[in-house]
Write a structure and sequence with these properties.
17 helices; 14% strand; Rossmann fold; five-stranded parallel β-sheet; 370 residues; Helicase, Ruva Protein, domain 3; alpha/beta
C-alpha cells in the first residue's frame, strides 16, 4: 500500500487551474494516465480478463457517475466492485437486494434513543448502507419499485432525505449495480428514471479459453492475491475535476448531439431503418454521459483533447440502457444494445467532420470578402 504522502503528491500533480499552457497540460494528463494505469493493474490482480469492463468501470468512477453491470452469475461482477473498493480505499458497503428489502433498509431511518445519564429522549438518524463512498447494489432488479426509488435522490443529488431532513453523502459517491439478465422470476425491471441515473451500462461477457484457464490457476491453485490501496478519495476527486476541464472540439460535440437525437424516432437525425425499432429515445443525460466519459477516455490515452474515437468508445454503453424498443423490435428479437449499435453506425463521424470543415471554409471566405 502506498503511503499517504504519495497520495498527496498524486493530488498535487492533478490539481491546478486551466489547461492553457501546453507543457502544464501534458504534465497533468500524464499524471492522470499513470494513476489510471496503476489502478487498472491493481484491480487486474484479482480479476482475470475483462479488460474493457475494468476500463469502463474506471471511466465511470473518474467521470463521477454510476455503473450498471449486467451478466450471468459467476463472471466476476461482485469481485470487480470489491477489488475496486480495495484499490481505492473508499468506504464500501454492499446491499443485497431482495423483494422484502424496504427503503429504510437502504437509506437509514430515524430512531428514538434515550440518554442514560439524563433520561432524555431524542430522535436520531441512523444511516443505512447507502452512506458509503462505493456502494454495491447487488441484484438491484430484485428490489421492489418502492425500494429502487430510494436510490434516485442519492444517485442524482448525492443526498438522502429522511423524515424531512436532508443528509449529504460523502464524495466521491459511486454506485455499482448488478443484475442477472436471464433469471426474471421474482424481479422488477428497472424503471426508465432509475436506468437514466446510470452513466453507463456494461454487459459482462463470458470468459474465453485463456481467461478461463487463468481463473482456474488463480482460484484453485495459487494463493489469492488481493488488491491493495493505490489511490485515495482526494486523488479521485482531483482526477474528476481535471477530466471536466479537457477541451472538446465543436465537431465532436455536434456528433454526440446527433447521436442522441438519432435515437428519437420522430427526429430529423434518426435513420429511416431505425425509426420503426425505437419507441422512446435517449434523454439529454445520454449526451452528458458520452461527453463526460469521452474526456476521461482521452486522458486515459494521454491526450488533452477529445477525439471522435473517444466518444465512440463510450457511446454504446451510454445509450444501450436509455433506448426503449418498439414492439416491432421486440418481436424481431433485437436488443437495445443492437439498436444502439445501428444508431452509431448510421451517424458516421466523417460526415460531421466534413460538415464542420465546409462551414469553417465558408465562414473564412465570408470574412475575407467582408
Amino acid at each position: 500500500m502506498a503511503d499517504p504522502q504519495s497520495f498527496a503528491t498524486d493530488e498535487r500533480e492533478l490539481d491546478g487551474g486551466g489547461l492553457d499552457d501546453i507543457a502544464e497540460a501534458r504534465r497533468r494528463c500524464e499524471a492522470f494516465r499513470k494513476i489510471f494505469a496503476r489502478l487498472r493493474a491493481e484491480v487486474a490482480k484479482a480479476l482475470a480478463g475483462q479488460r474493457e469492463v475494468v476500463d469502463l468501470a474506471l471511466v465511470s468512477l473518474f467521470a463521477d457517475g454510476h455503473l450498471l453491470l449486467e451478466g450471468v452469475p459467476g463472471l466476476g461482477k461482485t469481485l470487480l466492485v470489491r477489488s475496486l473498493a480495495s484499490a481505492t480505499g473508499l468506504g464500501f458497503s454492499r446491499i443485497q437486494f431482495t423483494p422484502d428489502v424496504m427503503p429504510a433498509d437502504v437509506t437509514g431511518t430515524s430512531i428514538l434513543v434515550e440518554d442514560e445519564a439524563t433520561g432524555r429522549r431524542a430522535v436520531r438518524f441512523r444511516p443505512g448502507p447507502l452512506f458509503a463512498q462505493l456502494v454495491l447494489a447487488d441484484e438491484i432488479n430484485r428490489a421492489s419499485p418502492k425500494t429502487q426509488s430510494a436510490l434516485l435522490e442519492a444517485m442524482q443529488e448525492r443526498s438522502v432525505t429522511v423524515g424531512g431532513e436532508t443528509h449529504t453523502l460523502v464524495r466521491p459517491f459511486f454506485v455499482m449495480a448488478t443484475q442477472n439478465p436471464i433469471e426474471q422470476e421474482g424481479t422488477f425491471p428497472l424503471p426508465e428514471a432509475q436506468l437514466d441515473r446510470f452513466l453507463l451500462k456494461l454487459e459482462v461477457p463470458p470468459p474465453d479459453r485463456e481467461t478461463l484457464r487463468e481463473i482456474l490457476e488463480r482460484t484453485t491453485k495459487a494463493e489469492l492475491v488481493l488488491p491493495t490501496q493505490v489511490v485515495d478519495a482526494r486523488t479521485i476527486i482531483a482526477a474528476q475535476k481535471l477530466a471536466r476541464r479537457i477541451p472538446m472540439a465543436p465537431e465532436v460535440q455536434d456528433w454526440i448531439v446527433r447521436i442522441v437525437l438519432a435515437t428519437h424516432p420522430d427526429g430529423e437525425f434518426c435513420a429511416d431503418d431505425n425509426r420503426r425499432l425505437i419507441r422512446i429515445g435517449a434523454s439529454p443525460r445520454a449526451a452528458q454521459a458520452i461527453a463526460t466519459c469521452a474526456r476521461v477516455v482521452a486522458l486515459m490515452a494521454g491526450r488533452y483533447a477529445v477525439s471522435f474515437a473517444d466518444a465512440r468508445k463510450v457511446a454504446r454503453a451510454a445509450l444501450r440502457h436509455r433506448i426503449q424498443r418498439s414492439f416491432e423490435a421486440e418481436s424481431e428479437g433485437l436488443s437495445s444494445d443492437e439498436i444502439a449499435r445501428r444508431v452509431i453506425a448510421a451517424t458516421p463521424t466523417e460526415l460531421v467532420a466534413a460538415t464542420h470543415a465546409a462551414k469553417a471554409t465558408t465562414d473564412k471566405s465570408s470574412r475575407a470578402s467582408a
